[in-house]
Design brief:
The structure holds two protein chains of two kinds. Chain A is built from six helices and ten strands. Chain A has a six-stranded mixed sheet with strand order 6-7-8-3-9-10, sandwiched between helices. In chain A, strands 2-1-4-5 form a four-stranded antiparallel sheet, covered by helices on one side. Chain A is globular and about 45 Å long. Chain B is an alpha+beta fold. Chain B is 54% helix and 20% strand. Chain B is built from 24 helices and 20 strands. In chain B, the strands form three sheets. Chain B has a six-stranded mixed barrel. Chain B starts with a helix and ends with a helix. The chains are: A alpha/beta, B alpha+beta.
């Protein structure tokens, strides 16, 4: 049963555009994107490589800023946030899960989670966060001693341990095998259902879309379709 | 402990070798600062307290003979705070267990102990008593060398008579911290001592009742900085009594040497550490720039997690602080030890009773602050560049560097001839501008250190050779008590063991040229003399003109005189009329303010037909004949002093070789730290950044040695370019040292031998190859398969 979804948007993009300078080249990653994220939902953004999904996620997470348009967090205009306010937003409001985990190589699993809890005002217990992701046996192992799936689960525990309302996941299954990927998806769905987290997930793998409450399709920096899934499919039934 | 601190600790351990290289450079820089600072303060404090204890004089005035009653006027001159007249003469010392006559300076002290200017500090025994009139206090170093102790008897030839004296004590004095024999450059404890006699006895034995021939005095504070006018008035006042020379404290030989040494330490304490710390900052800049790039993703992740820019910057800075602090602590410890060694070495040369190595917390704290400051400076560029990025951008791989041809490729005929290996190497050097510049700078500093150090050794050797082997070539010099005619010369020539005898006449005088005046002496030598030969800068001999004088360059500079100019010469003995004399030639010399003339011409200047007061001897080396010579010399009462120049030069060379050996060794080690540290650092970073490239080459079939040779060629190009660029810097440092050590007592020439340049390049190559061994080992151990799979 889907957890309740608040109809007032938690996050809102309003005609957002983003242009990158990569050396001598300018790349328009997003054009006129408008999108709402509602509290308590699982939103999946799907699109091929270069469609702008990572860029949207980074802007939603305060990791990057839009070149045009406005970004709202509740009724606060994030486009006008000072660097300190953006830092506070990243610290308190969101938990980010990266495609390649981005764990600190010379910290153990527990310590990688502690990196997040030490700056948080209301953190979860570190061991509890790791237990939630099923890693209670591997707390003192270093990333090089963990499998890809285990590393991703540490990354999820790190994002979770801050007790954020919003989890942003950048291709969380992209570097994982099929079975491990499904386990990670199950974890994310459980977090949404049992802990009431809002989960935004981006992927190039369209097969994942059915687990979402809503699906946003992107192409060439623009949203081409948004549709709702009235009956999200359990991750175990998905095949790719 | 926070997690980030644990991360920092593990990173420090993982980067051990790289960081050790930088820490070593910092430690050496700090050690130089602390050791030289400590030696500076040790010497300065010891000098200050010693001068205070002995009531060190501010001036010495040498006269022919002045009644004590005529000194009241001097004492009352405004600016004169106190005076003490005394009797001083040179004497020969006749020790029973020594064939050679030794030399001594005899000074009078009050019969009863009272605080006096240029007082003595009794080391063994006591002051004079009422029991005997012929008591003597002997300088402690001379007494120790010859195992003389209170209660023993000693013989001195005083005023042509052999006198027996009873040793009541040994003493030291601030006046003779660096006791050089006349014409010498270093203390000679074996052959030269100071002998203090009771004033009453000195008056009796030298026929100086109620008179003195030297006045020492102290000045009022307001005239201490510039007492020249006061001295002129004092000399005018005492002119009837034959004023030879007035020496201010600044020009007094012992004080001059000590002050120059202290001043030199102060200069070295600044520029030596500056070199090391500048290199350390640059090397750290490259290293931490690399670490910042390596940790781009981690820093971006921390920012994404909600760490503020300040916190992330501080975390990164802590690495630099750890490096700076470690270098500072190690450097302070090493510096304190070196300072102790330097102080012990100084004790061998400078007789300072209170010279001990102390801890100077101020110096250490300054060193620590400077080292940490350098480390922080070195880290700013790397960390700020990444911190300025948004978290998302920081986590993205850095855009590829600009491609395109390097400038050398425009030289088509050259570029086409190069193999792909050499093209890789040259592109690597040219494209990594910051790393190349940092490496070249470090090599330049290492090279400058070596060149300036080797040139100092060359200069010292040249100075010794020039002065003691080319200008003055005698084996034994005799100083006669009074002027004699040429009979003394013939008598000396007939002494056993003498191969050649040449006359000299030393006349103290005042030179004037317009507004410029200088007291000095003219040395008369025979035409065609071979034992004193004035020389040009290229060591060509300058013939003594029959009329006129040959003046050394420093004296000519002081008088603003050029060859052909005439100067007014006013002798202080004989016919004391000022005479206009032509300066025929300007000679080079690195010691003293010598002026030479024909002995006959000089004799006539002072109203004599032919006068001699010194004889230079070239002697046999047969020890038996030398012993016979010394026995004869001991029995000659007309001698004021006998200088064994050959022994003195041998002793000087021995001291010099020892000191220079230690100095050169230390210099090579320090330069090695700079070279080794910076080359190792740059090469390992190079290797880390190009793992993918290295792995690709291995897949293609390059062996590890061939891969290593690419990196070696890059580091050698940078090292050799830097080494060559550093050579003129080292030469410039040598010129600066020469300017700094340009005094009336001695001057340092700027000399380099081919060995300087060859050794510098050879050592740079050696250090480069040594550093490369570690890099080669890393290449052999590299898991290049894993490197191929590493995510960009």
């Amino acid at each position: 049963m889907a957890a309740s979804i608040d109809r007032k948007p938690l996050l809102r993009l309003e005609n957002v555009g983003k242009t990158f300078r990569m050396g001598e080249v300018a790349v328009e990653a997003l054009r006129q994107v408008s999108l709402e994220v509602f509290a308590g939902e699982m939103l999946v953004m799907v699109g091929p490589s270069g469609s702008g999904k990572t860029t949207i996620l980074n802007i939603l997470g305060g990791l990057d800023t839009a070149t045009e348009g406005r970004v709202w967090y509740g009724d606060r205009d994030m486009s006008r946030f000072t660097p300190s306010e953006l830092t506070a937003y990243r610290r308190d409001a969101i938990g980010f899960v990266f495609q390649f985990y981005n764990l600190v190589p010379n910290l153990s699993a527990r310590e990688n989670v502690m990196v997040a809890t030490e700056i948080s005002d209301d953190p979860m217990d570190v061991d509890e966060a790791l237990r939630l992701v099923g890693l209670d046996e591997r707390l003192d192992h270093f990333p090089s001693q963990l499998s890809g799936g285990e590393q991703q689960r540490v990354a999820i525990a790190r994002a979770l341990a801050k007790n954020p309302g919003l989890l942003l996941c950048d291709e969380p299954t992209g570097a994982l095998d099929f079975a491990t990927g499904k386990r990670v998806l199950r974890l994310l769905v459980d977090l949404k259902r049992h802990l009431g987290k809002t989960v935004v997930l981006i992927t190039h793998n369209g097969a994942i879309a059915p687990v979402a409450d809503r699906v946003v399709r992107l192409r060439s920096g623009q949203i081409v379709e948004v549709h709702a899934n009235p009956e999200p499919v359990p991750p175990e039934e998905i095949v790719w | 402990m926070s997690v980030l601190h644990r991360k920092l600790g593990r990173e420090l351990r993982a980067s051990g070798l790289l960081l050790l290289a930088v820490v070593s450079i910092i430690a050496v820089g700090v050690a130089c600062f602390v050791s030289m600072g400590a030696a500076y303060y040790n010497l300065n404090e010891a000098k200050r307290s010693y001068y205070r204890q002995c009531r060190m004089a501010d001036f010495w005035m040498d006269l022919k003979k002045v009644p004590l009653t005529e000194l009241d006027g001097l004492a009352r001159l405004p600016g004169i705070a106190a005076i003490r007249p005394r009797i001083q003469f040179y004497a020969t010392v006749d020790l029973e267990n020594r064939t050679k006559p030794l030399n001594g300076l005899v000074l009078s002290l009050p019969d009863r102990r009272e605080p006096v200017i240029n007082d003595v500090v009794i080391r063994r025994g006591g002051y004079f008593s009422d029991r005997r009139r012929n008591e003597v206090i002997v300088s402690d170093a001379f007494a120790a060398h010859h195992h003389l102790a209170p209660g023993q008897w000693i013989h001195l030839v005083l005023n042509n008579r052999r006198q027996e004296l009873f040793i009541v004590g040994t003493a030291i004095s601030s006046e003779f911290v660096y006791l050089m024999p006349p014409g010498g450059l270093a203390p000679d404890r074996e052959n030269y001592g100071v002998f203090y006699l009771k004033n009453s006895y000195a008056e009796e034995v030298f026929d100086f009742d109620g008179a003195a021939n030297q006045v020492v005095g102290r000045l009022a504070p307001e005239v201490r900085d510039d007492p020249r006018e006061l001295f002129r008035r004092a000399e005018d006042l005492l002119a009837p009594y034959g004023v030879f020379l007035t020496t201010a404290l600044a020009d007094q030989a012992s004080n001059n040497f000590l002050t120059q040494e202290i001043a030199g330490l102060r200069v070295f304490a600044v520029f030596m550490p500056a070199i090391f710390l500048a290199v350390a900052a640059l090397v750290l800049n490259v290293l931490l720039g690399r670490l910042a790039e390596q940790q781009r993703t981690v820093m971006g992740t921390l920012k994404a997690l909600g760490y503020s820019d300040r916190r992330v910057f501080w975390h990164f800075l802590e690495l630099a602080l750890a490096v700076g602090a470690t270098g500072a602590v190690l450097g302070c410890g090493l510096g304190h030890w070196i300072g102790g060694w330097m102080t012990a070495t100084y004790r061998a040369f400078y007789e300072l009773p209170d010279l001990t190595n102390r801890l100077y917390w101020g110096v250490m704290l300054s060193a620590g602050a400077i080292s940490i400051g350098c480390a922080v400076l070195g880290s700013l560029r790397g960390s700020r560049a990444v911190l300025r990025l948004q978290p998302a951008e920081a986590m993205r791989p850095k855009p590829p560097k600009r491609g395109g041809a390097v400038f050398l490729e425009r030289v088509g005929w050259f570029w086409r001839r190069l193999s792909s290996d050499w093209r890789l190497v040259l592109r690597g050097v040219i494209r990594n501008r910051v790393r190349t510049l940092a490496g070249a700078f470090a090599a330049a500093m290492g090279s400058a250190l070596l060149v300036s150090g080797f040139m100092m050794v060359d200069a010292s050797q040249y100075m010794l050779d020039f002065q003691f082997k080319w200008i003055i070539k005698s084996d034994v010099d005799l100083a006669l008590k009074d002027e004699q005619n040429d009979d003394a010369l013939f008598e000396a020539a007939r002494l056993p063991g003498v191969d050649r005898a040449e006359p000299t006449l030393n006349v103290a005088c005042t030179f004037s040229h317009g507004p410029y005046r200088k007291k000095g002496a003219v040395t008369g030598i025979a035409p065609g003399a071979t034992l004193t030969v004035p020389r040009e800068v290229d060591a060509r001999p300058i013939p003594i003109p029959p009329v006129g004088v040959v003046m050394t360059r420093k004296m000519a500079e002081l008088l603003h005189v050029r060859p052909g100019d005439s100067v007014l010469v006013e002798p202080v003995k004989g016919l004391r009329e000022p005479r206009r004399v032509c300066v025929r030639h300007v000679a080079d010399s690195f010691m003293g303010l010598s002026v030479y003339a024909d002995v006959g011409y000089l004799s006539r200047l002072i109203g004599e037909e032919y006068a001699v007061n010194g004889i230079q001897l070239a002697t046999d080396r047969d020890p038996a004949r030398l012993d016979a010579l010394y026995r004869e010399l001991k029995a000659m009462p007309a001698l004021e002093a006998v200088s064994d120049r050959r022994a003195m030069v041998e002793s000087l060379e021995k001291i010099f070789l020892e000191q220079m050996g230690i100095f050169t060794g230390a210099l090579v080690v320090f330069a090695g730290v700079v070279f080794f540290g910076s080359i190792l650092n740059a090469s390992l970073i190079n290797l880390a950044e190009r793992q993918g490239e290295v792995a690709t080459l291995r897949v293609l079939g390059y062996g590890p040695w061939r891969v290593g040779s690419l990196l070696l060629r890059e580091s050698m190009i940078v090292t050799l370019v830097g080494t060559v660029l550093g050579m003129p810097i080292g030469y410039g440092l040598s010129v600066l040292s020469s300017w700094a050590y340009d005094t009336e007592l001695f001057r340092f020439p700027v000399v380099s031998t081919p060995g300087t340049w060859i050794w510098t390049v050879a050592l740079a190559v050696l250090f480069g190859l040594s550093a490369h061994l570690f890099v080669q080992r890393a290449i052999h151990r590299m898991n290049w398969l894993e490197a191929l799979q590493a995510k960009e």
